[in-house]
Automatic annotation (TrEMBL):
This is ATP-binding cassette sub-family B member 6. Its EC number is 7.6.2.5. One of its GO terms (molecular function) is ATP hydrolysis activity. Residues 816-852 are annotated as: Disordered. It comes from Myripristis murdjan. Residues 830-839 have a biased composition (Basic and acidic residues). The chain crosses the membrane at residues 27-50, 71-89, 101-119, 140-163, 175-193, 252-275, 295-319, 376-399, 405-425, 496-514, 520-540. Residues 259-549 form the ABC transmembrane type-1 domain. Keywords: ATP-binding, Cell membrane, Disulfide bond, Endoplasmic reticulum, Endosome, Golgi apparatus, Lysosome, Membrane, Mitochondrion, Mitochondrion outer membrane, Nucleotide-binding, Secreted, Translocase, Transmembrane, Transmembrane helix, Transport.
Length: 852
């Protein structure tokens, strides 16, 4: 039979907090369940009332299924069983049962039962105005206090009243029960930070279609809005993308450099331990009156270690500088690989993506993304990991050399510091993302305005553009202020925690010195070590923020990497075997957007060496046929063949190597005329470039320029006229010497005389080659072997010029309209000339009279 003789055990009182080198079990097991029950009952009750009054029941379809949530429930239930079984075992073991054991058991059962109820409540109901995700503060606080309390047991490591000695069955059972509590509470706390059983986004965004539409409309080109998404979401996926850049494959020298830098990192950790130890030895030797050689040796070793370590955080020491110097090559390798792969990936994307991109957004994302990878790797490898290692080493050192209280102080401060840093920094993420978006918007407006400089001038809109840019800057500065203000709040919180920990540890160490348990050197050791530890820890928040900011900056770049190629080569694709140049379109269907077909059942054949012209109204699908033949897009139905080979089954590079294109709007690189022509064949010599210019009838014009072929053409070739740009494009195509030529309304925007000159140049290029021409002026394609009239995505008429005129159909109607327009223009020009001569006649007559 069990008797409750007294509340505490014999020879102890609840007023005693420290007994035999440890916390009094009576005090500890009274305080802990009381605090937990208070949090669970009082704060939990307020929490329940708020959820019942201001919350709403979540629809089951929005509640995520999660095994981790099941683990949360199972772990909480296990703790309940543990407390009950602990009381049953204590009662069954016989003897006197102290009152605090019963209180501890029942209070703990009630507290954890209430916590389970809160966990289930949060899964069923949600606050309507809650725009955050995750568990409530009440639950997180409850789990954090429970886990921290179980860590307090380490303080009583040497106390005979606790279970650490494992000398008998009672201590062994108590240790097993404590181990269950320790693992379970830690598991609940860390899983609770992830909140697996709750929606990842605010509930109102899930159920409100209008708000979701607003959110989607605010999506940028590079991906959907991630205002409420954690930076660490898809962390594993992001790390997998980073791994190829972290280890320099293919270079043994760089791999050795990486290993050498990691070795220097380990040396730094050892030096950080020995510096305060030798400083303590100097103080003790000076106070003890040691001999000069002994003191001098210790001082020399200390100074050598400080030289190796540098400033308190090792930021400028010999080892750190050596590591930074060795890391330069690795950093350059990473930066080069990232930029080259991303640049190649962008060039592999489809025309559809490039037509819809925002150049300013893309450039800013590339700049921030590539620079953030280097900083990310550097912060993780050389800042975060070493800081965590220093914290673990310091806790072990303080527990073993001093006592458990110092280890507890360091542990509590570090835990609070890291936890609050992570929580506040996660909260600040939305401000950083918004600032990046506003920065992108401002830069996009600036880039677009400068690229359209002529249009701005045409409409006298300079003040409007400046106003738009200023508005964008103001919006950016609002987001920037929020970011900086939240950063100041974070820094003050960190300083408060660090100052409190330093004060508590210094007072405790000074107390032990006054009691004669420690030497003066021990106080110096503690102060030196703790300040040395707090210095990198003070930077830990910065490291975490920089890592998070790097992830945020990289999100846009990851979105670019995630953009899939629309037109891909088949796995077994071979090279195009060009023979004669026969082009076949067979029942081709194509649409840019689902539900709106551009081409419908288009079929035609271009025989080797023939010229086929495509004519029709704007938007009928003529240019789309050219793009499909060049394989900017893949057809949705039918197939396109060249010499009997389906172009979707051959490599794109081999297909395009045989095709030359002269587009309607020629855009040149901001380079010399020589290099722009040489772009047709990079390996061409200067003589071949000039021969191509002669064939394109632009050589003489180039030679009239002061710098000749070295003349800079300006942004997009704006320093050249339209006819000159077209001739450069023709020369570029001549230099490429393709077997198949595509002309996409190459002369539609030019005057008549320039058009005739360029037509003569094009005739030389197309002689003997298979040619497909998209024409606007019908007079330019009279001599085509076959004319295809495209209407509403179909071939409405086909034949030679004379045949189509005799039919009297669409082509004949287009021809008559253009002829009438041309005659009207000619008559207008004649009348204008007559009016000019009439105005000149009286002037000449009067001049003659004055001459008399």
């Amino acid at each position: 039979m069990v008797f409750v003789h007294s509340y505490c055990e014999a020879n102890s009182s609840i007023s005693q907090t420290w007994v035999d080198e440890g916390i009094s079990p009576c005090f500890y097991f009274t305080l802990l369940p009381t605090v937990l029950l208070t949090i669970a009952f009082f704060l939990g009750t307020i929490h329940c009332i708020c959820y019942q009054r201001y919350g709403t029941t979540m629809e089951p379809k929005f509640i995520p299924r999660s095994r981790l949530y099941g683990l949360q429930q199972a772990t909480s239930a296990l703790l309940l069983v543990q407390f009950l079984s602990g009381m049953v075992w204590q009662a069954a073991s016989g003897g006197e049962l102290p009152g605090y054991v019963m209180l501890y058991g029942w209070f703990s059962v009630l507290g954890w039962a209430w916590a389970i109820a809160l966990l289930r409540l949060e899964r069923r109901r949600v606050l309507v105005m809650d725009r955050t995700r995750g568990h409530s503060t009440v639950l997180l606080l409850f789990w954090a206090v429970a886990f921290s309390a179980e860590n307090l047991a380490f303080v009583s490591w040497y106390s005979p009243h606790w279970w650490w000695a494992l000398e008998n069955q009672k201590q062994q059972v108590q240790f097993a029960l404590w181990l269950i509590r320790y693992i379970s509470t830690g598991l609940l706390f860390f899983i609770g930070l992830k909140a697996p059983g709750l929606p990842r986004r605010p509930y109102m965004l899930l159920i409100n279609e209008e708000e979701r539409d607003v959110e989607q409309s605010a999506q940028s080109l590079l991906g959907r809005s991630q205002e409420n998404q954690s930076t660490w979401q898809d962390f594993r996926k992001k790390v997998r993308l980073l791994v190829p850049y972290m280890w320099p494959r293919g270079s043994i020298l760089l791999q050795l450099l990486v290993l050498f830098c990691l070795g220097l990192l380990g040396i730094e950790r050892a030096i950080n331990v020995f510096v305060p130890i030798y400083y303590k030895n100097i103080v003790n030797e000076l106070t003890d009156g040691s001999s000069w050689p002994t003191v001098a040796t210790t001082v020399c070793i200390y100074v050598l270690l400080k030289f190796m370590q540098g400033g308190g955080a090792g930021a400028s020491g010999f080892v750190s500088n050596m590591r930074s110097f060795m890391w330069i090559r690795v950093q350059q390798y990473t930066n080069r690989i990232v930029q080259v792969r991303l640049f190649a990936h962008l060039h592999s994307l489809s025309l559809r993506w490039h037509l819809g991109r925002k150049t300013g957004d893309v450039l800013r994302s590339i700049d921030r993304g590539t620079s953030s990878i280097n900083s990310l790797l550097s912060y993780i490898v050389f800042s975060i990991f070493p800081t965590i290692a220093d914290i673990v080493i310091s806790i072990i050192y303080f527990i073993t050399y001093f006592n458990a209280w110092f280890g507890l102080i360091v542990f509590v401060c570090m835990t609070l510091y890291l936890t609050l840093t992570i929580i506040i920094t996660e909260w600040r993420t939305k401000y950083r993302r918004d600032m990046n978006q506003q920065d992108n918007n401002a830069k996009s407006k600036a880039v677009d305005s400068l690229l359209n400089f002529e249009t701005v001038k045409y409409y006298n809109a300079e003040s409007y553009e400046v106003s738009r840019f200023e508005d964008a800057i103001l919006k950016y500065q609002v987001s920037e202020w929020k970011t900086q203000a939240s950063l100041a709040f974070l820094n003050q919180t960190q300083n408060l925690i660090i100052g409190s920990g330093l004060l508590a540890g210094s007072l405790l160490c000074a107390y032990f010195v006054t009691e004669g348990k420690f030497q003066v050197g021990d106080f110096v050791l503690f102060g030196t070590y703790i300040i040395q530890l707090y210095t990198p820890l003070n930077w830990f928040g910065t490291y975490y923020r920089m890592i998070q900011n790097s992830f945020i900056d990289m999100e846009s770049m990851f979105k670019l990497f995630e953009e899939e190629e629309e037109v891909k080569d088949d796995i077994n694709a071979g090279n195009l075997l060009y023979k004669l140049g026969k082009v076949e379109f067979e029942n081709v269907y194509f649409s840019y957007v689902n539900g709106k077909e551009i081409l419908r059942d288009v079929s035609f054949t271009v025989l080797p060496g023939q010229t086929v012209a495509l004519v029709g109204q704007s938007g009928s699908g003529k240019s789309t046929i050219i793009r499909l033949l060049f394989r900017f897009y893949d057809v949705q139905g039918g197939c396109i063949r060249i010499d009997g080979q389906d172009i979707s089954k051959v490599k794109q590079s081999s297909l395009r190597a045989h095709i030359g294109v002269v587009p309607q709007d020629t855009v040149l690189f901001n380079d010399t005329i020589r290099d722009n022509i040489r772009y047709g064949r990079i390996s061409a010599s200067d003589q071949e470039v000039e021969e191509a210019a002669v064939a394109a009838d632009i050589h003489d014009k180039i030679m009239t320029f002061p710098e000749g072929y070295d003349t800079q053409v300006g942004e997009r070739g704006l320093k050249l006229s339209g006819g000159e740009k077209q001739r450069v494009a023709i020369a570029r195509t001549i230099l490429k010497a393709p077997q198949l030529i595509l002309l996409d309304e190459a002369t539609s925007a030019l005057d008549t005389q320039t058009e005739r000159n360029i037509q003569a140049s094009l005739a030389k290029v197309c002689a003997g080659r298979t040619t497909v021409v998209v024409a606007h002026r019908l007079s330019t394609i009279i001599g085509a072997d076959q004319i295809l009239v495209v209407s509403d995505g179909q071939i409405a008429e086909r034949g030679r010029h004379e045949e189509l005129l005799q039919k009297g159909g669409l082509y004949a109607d287009m021809w008559m309209k253009q002829q009438r327009a041309q005659d009207s223009d000619s008559s207008s020009d004649t009348e204008s000339k007559d009016r000019k001569s009439e105005k000149l006649q009286p002037a000449s007559t009067s001049t003659g009279h004055r001459g008399h």
